[in-house]
């Protein structure tokens, strides 16, 4: 079920509806779907919208399109690899993220263990797999009779393509993909809260350290920083975006470069980092330059990984509740596996809040 207020593009609504009808065998194998013109009338949309929906169905093998003739339902039973009696769910993340310095590694560890517990409580096991480009996920799913897949954080498109071919239920976590239910923190609101908190503490020269280019979380957090700066009329006073890679080292390097390039009078009074590991790296770079946190520069992180509570000073950060995210993801998966719901394709945003500790000073 889609939460009130969630947005689904019209073509995805059509895709979801037609997919449901095909799975429920309202259209049988080999049966022709209504023509594009009829579908336009049924759903009150333009032809380009219908074509986008049909293209998604064709990519999944649910229909076969014959130019000049129409679209026909494919052999769903042949292409479906559902392991209905299996009690094993796959936790799939990119192997390159297995870096002890990476915020993704730390956060995903906090995510995996509560997910494993909820799975176990419901009679399922959760199996971890690190993915490299070229790995055969389909063979792995067949060998271990995987019932469903959690696609965690940023993965290569090849990984998504392989999972799509299997037809087994899948959920994206911390990443958005047009074919799957995606569960995400409310990144925009998180950065907005951080900006408003720093402004309330008197800060106007606020810099931002972003995550890896192309990652959904990184792009959303950066965009929110820029928008919040305009909303609060900070653009004419100070704006500085640094590029990181989620890791501690990238936080150190980015902050060191900023302090070397700017004169002391142009230093930011505060920095928001798109991850806690980068924020901790920022704090160490500030101290290495002979400055203090928060006396000279305040720092705010994002995600509230365990380490953020134990660094010095304890890090003020936007809390992404990994336990809630884990529970919601598993509940959606189990509801589907148990036949209680069908997945709609949309993005479910989970609430976040600010954990105030000792790394921000009122000026």
UniProtKB/TrEMBL annotation:
Entry keywords, A to Z: DNA-binding, Transcription, Transcription regulation
Stretches assigned to the HTH gntR-type domain: 8-76
Protein name (database record): HTH gntR-type domain-containing protein
PANTHER family assigned to the protein according to its UniProt record, in alphabetical order: ALANINE RACEMASE, LACI-RELATED TRANSCRIPTIONAL REPRESSOR
Entry keyword Signal: no
Origin: domain of life: Bacteria
Record GO terms (molecular function): DNA-binding transcription factor activity; transcription cis-regulatory region binding
Entry-linked SMART domains: HTH_GNTR
């Amino acid at each position: 079920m889609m939460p009130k207020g969630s947005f689904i593009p019209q073509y995805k609504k059509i895709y979801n509806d037609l997919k449901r009808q095909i799975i429920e065998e309202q259209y049988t194998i080999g049966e022709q779907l209504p023509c594009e013109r009829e579908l336009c009338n049924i759903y009150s949309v333009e032809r380009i919208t219908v074509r986008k929906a049909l293209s998604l169905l064709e990519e999944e093998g649910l229909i076969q399109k014959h130019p000049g003739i129409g679209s026909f339902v494919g052999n769903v039973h042949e292409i479906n690899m559902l392991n209905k009696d299996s009690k094993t769910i796959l936790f799939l993340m990119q192997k390159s993220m297995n870096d002890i310095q990476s915020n993704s590694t730390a956060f995903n560890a906090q995510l995996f263990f509560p997910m494993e517990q909820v799975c176990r409580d419901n009679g399922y096991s959760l199996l971890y797999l690190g993915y490299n480009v070229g790995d055969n996920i389909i063979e792995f799913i067949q060998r271990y009779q995987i019932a469903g897949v959690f696609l965690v954080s940023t993965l290569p498109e090849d990984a998504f393509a392989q999972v799509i071919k299997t037809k087994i239920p899948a959920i994206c976590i911390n990443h958005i993909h047009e074919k799957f239910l995606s569960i995400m923190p409310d990144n925009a609101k998180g950065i907005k809260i951080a900006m408003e908190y720093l402004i309330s503490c008197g800060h106007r020269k606020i810099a931002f350290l972003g995550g890896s280019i192309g990652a959904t979380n990184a792009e959303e957090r950066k965009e929110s920083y820029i928008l919040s700066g305009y909303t609060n009329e900070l653009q004419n006073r100070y704006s500085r975006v640094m590029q990181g890679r989620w890791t501690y080292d990238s936080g150190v390097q980015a902050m060191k470069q900023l302090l070397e390039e700017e004169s002391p009078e142009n230093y930011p009074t505060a920095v928001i980092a798109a991850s806690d590991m980068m924020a901790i790296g920022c704090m160490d770079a500030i101290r290495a330059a002979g400055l203090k946190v928060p006396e000279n520069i305040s720092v705010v992180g994002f995600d509230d990984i365990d380490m953020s509570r134990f660094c010095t000073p304890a890090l003020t950060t936007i809390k992404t509740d990994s336990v809630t995210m884990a529970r919601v993801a598993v509940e959606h998966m189990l509801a589907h596996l148990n036949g209680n719901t069908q997945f709609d394709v949309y993005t479910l945003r989970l609430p976040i809040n600010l954990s105030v500790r000792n790394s921000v000073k009122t000026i």
